[in-house]
Amino acid sequence: MAIDPPSNLPDAEPLDTVPPEFDQELNEGTLPPPKTLGGILRQLGPGLVVAGSIVGSGELIATTKTGAQAGIALLWLIVVGCLIKVFVQIELGRYSICNGETTLNALNRVPGRMGPANWIIWFWFFMMLAGIAQLGGIVGGVGQSLAIAVPFTGDYREAIAVPEQSEVVSYLEWTDLLNSETVELTDIPEEELTRIQHGHKRIGEALEQLGERGVQTLEAVKAGETLKDPRTWDDKFWALIVGLITVALLYNGRYSVIQTISTVLVIAFTFITIGNVVSLQMTEEWALSWDDVVTGFSFGLPKTGDKWDSLATALATFGIIGVGATELITYPYWCIEKGYARYTGKRTNDEDWVTRARGWMKVMHYDAFLSMVVYTIATMAFFIMGVAVLYREGRDPGGMRMVSTLASAYVPVFGTYAKWLFLGGAIAVLYSTFLVANAGHSRMYTDAMKIFGFIPRNDQKAHDRTLTTFCVVLPILCVALHWTGIDPASAVLLSGMMQATMLPMIGLGALYFRYTSTDPRLAPSKLWDVMLIISFLGLLVAGVWGVYLQILKLM
Predict the structure, then answer these.
(1) Cα–chain center distance at 45
(2) Which parts pass through the membrane (predicted)?
(3) How many helices (H) and strands (E) does the chain have?
(4) Cys-Cys with 425: which of 100, 243, 269, 555 at CB 3.0–4.6 Å?
(5) Within the chain, what is the greatest distance between any pair of CA atoms?
(6) Bigger pLDDT: 262 or 148?
(7) Pair 65, 317: CB distance under 8 Å
């Protein structure tokens, strides 16, 4: 039975920017949604692509670093960061499927225009600049992994054999503390003392293995000299090779190619990491106790070290773990390319459209929630590894030693094979992130070119030409940034902080769509609305608090 069309359809402006091959209005390719579980599972994909773009940066680098800095105390924040965003993610997907619009074009409908775009789009632009630095850090991580595994000259391997400045300084301070006659070791919290003893032993052994070079390093730091890491080329040449391979894959790569590669790479390393965590729990030295787990979910802050610095790192991590701001925006693009919007068809007032829309949104729900389960488990595994091994040994992954430090988290279980196991896995997930993120960024930049009026909105040739250009330029630009000597971990965390700031803006956009543009026939339940509001408030608190902490650090 026909009913009156909804009165809250999106305004005529801005016009949609969906490329013609995926446009609901220009294609008659509607498709009934699958009704069986098997049929639904065969239509999944966008969520796995998104998972492929996040495991390498948020999970492998930022989450493990947070565990190394803060210990178990911030486990609750990591889990909340994964769970809270899925409601906003699905709301953005709902809008794109029902209205056939890309995320940027939809967000540009939120009031507050400043020229051709509104305030959200302008902040997105600056966030994406930091995102390029993040990808420079990630391709640097791939380069570091390959430079260790398959060196050209061995200069990178030789450079990272020497502990960095901060580690040597800590070693000297810990030596004085452990040998002090005025400080009672019993006055130091047991957890902190264990950390100091493990770190002191580890750095001491590393310096001893260096022989005379280690002695000279110690004497230089004692004399107040600053250790400077040498410029290495193995990691940079490998990063260049990786960048060129990415250009070749993206130049003609379609959605199916990206989905297949990212899925295989992520699943392989995630299972290795989960296995590592389970194995750690079976060892007396590295296992986390039940009390540790309770502490992790007690909504507290770290009791040792610089808790505010650890919290700032955690909030930056919050911006990119699970689905970060970039992935929230990108997800509907992959839904459109998968065909969810085209299969649903242009919104009309007939019941057939409502049935299709409900069916394909159900598929999207499965897709989003399944990917959430995957990346939440992976995130917890990486965090626990950082806590169980790196935190207890006083390690903090960063700089040119980022990959070698992360690899040490696998040593207690896999021994001498750990390096090769980790390097293979790190190359897999870091490259998956680099590949998928460049593909997603290229699509967003192409969309932005339409919003800002640089290319026609509905010209398929202009769209394809611009997309191909970005697929070539962005990977090379990321490699160039790595060659400048950018710190991979710092670049990832900078992008994370920008994304954490962007999250409440995206949450606001999702609320705006829900209450101004949702077809009443497809309105979600009251419980869903409550969870969406809670999600927005959580993103708002994390974003504002993260900015506040960064301001404090600058003062």
Answers:
(1) 18
(2) 68-88, 119-142, 237-253, 260-280, 311-334, 368-391, 420-440, 467-486, 492-515, 527-548
(3) 24, 2
(4) 269
(5) 88
(6) 148
(7) yes
